[in-house]
Amino acid sequence: MSHVKIIGPNVPNMPWQDRPADSRQELPVWRYSENPIIGRNPAKGVARIFNSAVIPYDGAFIGVFRGEQTNGIPYIYLGRSKDAIHWEFDEEKIPFKDENGRDFMPRYAYDPRLVKVEDTYYIMWCQDFYGASIGLAKTQDFKTFTRIENPFIPFNRNAVLFPRKINGKYRMLSRPSDSGHTPFGDIFVSESPDMVYWGRHRHLMSNSGNWWENVKIGGGAAPIETSEGWLLFYHGVTGTCNGYVYSIGGAILDIDEPSVVKYRCSTFLLTPEAWYEERGFVPNVAFPCATIHDAGSGRIAIYYGCADTYVGLAFTTADEVVSYIKEHSVVTETDTEVGIR
């Protein structure tokens, strides 16, 4: 019987695998034994798919995928699946239009997220807006995709929309940065009445003294509404003599004021250890971008990019991961304050 309640729809056909006997028993998250679920050269003209987001749709599953073309330029491709594990991808990039129906394609697009709010699906990604910035689009049928004005000026990335309005406003996480491979970064939360005008920016979390997130952090999957607050899977980055290492962390945010962190796990939930996380185009990366979760069972499937080369799948339950985060929580003043100065 689940004690932590996921607030949302039932998804009984979501992918699931019980914890394998050889998983790290002290951690609440375990890997799918058949990882990676998306390998190299997955579609025509695409060398690698990673850092992608999926969602239940029409009794099956649909997703937006970072497709690294063979010429090295990333774009977003649409994929469909009956089981959320085996995917078929459109050959052409998602055809973004402006509000008048004219072609409006970004110069490049990567690390998309996909979130449903009310009856509309929103796609967020990183793009060029005279520097690294956030792109936005909306769809209701996954046939037409209308771009929305860029929410922020450069430099910013890692946009993650909350799956419902809070106090009547859209809320979105982002990570202000610079236009390079940023050696710093905190998570902020902003609000909007209409998905066009954004303000009331609040600081959410900074990097910490914990070794796995002591360089920078950034949003990951869309927050999951639970009886304990918003469950957030995010990425934390450390530096080594051989480059950055990206791990998956967890926190629980206040349900009505999400700039307030109630609990923040001092340990990672998953760090690169498997071959497909350690070895690839960019080694040592576990980068969460989406979850599928079932309110009835409390099960959670986490989709994450692996070494900028593959897509991996990991599992947990609301009970296990929330209990672990609370048990290992360490919060600071900048975590628990509203985030205004």
Automatic annotation (TrEMBL):
Keywords: Glycosyltransferase, Hydrolase, Transferase. The keyword RNA-binding does not apply. The keyword Glycosyltransferase applies. InterPro entries: Glyco_hydro_beta-prop_sf (IPR023296), Mannoside_phosphorylase (IPR007184). GO terms for molecular function: glycosyltransferase activity; hydrolase activity. Belongs to the glycosyl hydrolase 130 family. This is Glycoside hydrolase family 130 protein.
